[in-house]
């Protein structure tokens, strides 16, 4: 059994897409079924999905946590912006 990674708003993550690796920032954690861009997305507190904003295009996507890799945490991002 693998431990699920949880993400917080502001975390920088990356994932594979048809165009290659994409990076983005977590905007929202979804824990119930929603309709996103016309498609039903199944999420629960046990298996949340995350709305992510691409760092290059500002495009919004939604993915399960299992396909995301954390690059930097929200806390690290805040420290960098203070410098």
Give the structural class. Answer: mainly beta
What best-fitting shape do the alpha-carbon axes yield? globular
**Spatial extent as radius of gyration:** 13 Å
- What can be said about the biggest beta sheet? 5 strands, antiparallel
What's the number of helices?
Answer: 1
Average pLDDT number: 87
Strand content: over 45%
Strand adjacency order, main sheet: 6-5-2-1-7
Outline the low-pLDDT stretches: none
What is the number of beta strands?
7
State the order of secondary-structure elements, H for helix, E for strand. Answer: EEEEEEEH
Report the helical percentage: 10-25%
Distance between the termini: 40 Å
Structural description of this entry:
The chain contains 1 helix and 7 strands; from the N terminus they run E-E-E-E-E-E-E-H. Strands 6-5-2-1-7 form a 5-stranded antiparallel beta sheet. A two-stranded antiparallel sheet has the order 3-4. It is globular, with a radius of gyration of 13 Å. A hairpin with a 2-residue loop joins strand 3 and strand 4. It starts with 11 loop residues before the first strand and ends with a helix. The longest helix has 9 residues, at 74-82. The chain has one helix at residues 74-82; strands at residues 12-17, 20-30, 34-36, 39-41, 49-54, 60-64, 69-72. By secondary structure, the chain is mainly beta.
Spell out the blueprint of helices and strands.
Blueprint: E1 12-17, E2 20-30, E3 34-36, E4 39-41, E5 49-54, E6 60-64, E7 69-72, H1 74-82
Antiparallel strand pairs: 1-2, 1-7, 2-5, 3-4, 5-6
């Amino acid at each position: 059994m693998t431990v699920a990674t949880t993400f917080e708003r502001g975390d920088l993550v990356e994932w594979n897409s048809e165009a290659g690796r994409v990076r983005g920032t977590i905007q929202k954690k979804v824990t119930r079924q929603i309709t996103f861009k016309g498609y039903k997305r199944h999420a629960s507190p046990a298996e949340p999905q995350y709305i992510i904003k691409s760092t290059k295009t500002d495009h919004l996507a939604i993915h399960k946590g299992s396909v995301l890799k954390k690059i930097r945490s929200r806390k690290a991002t805040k420290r960098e912006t203070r410098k």
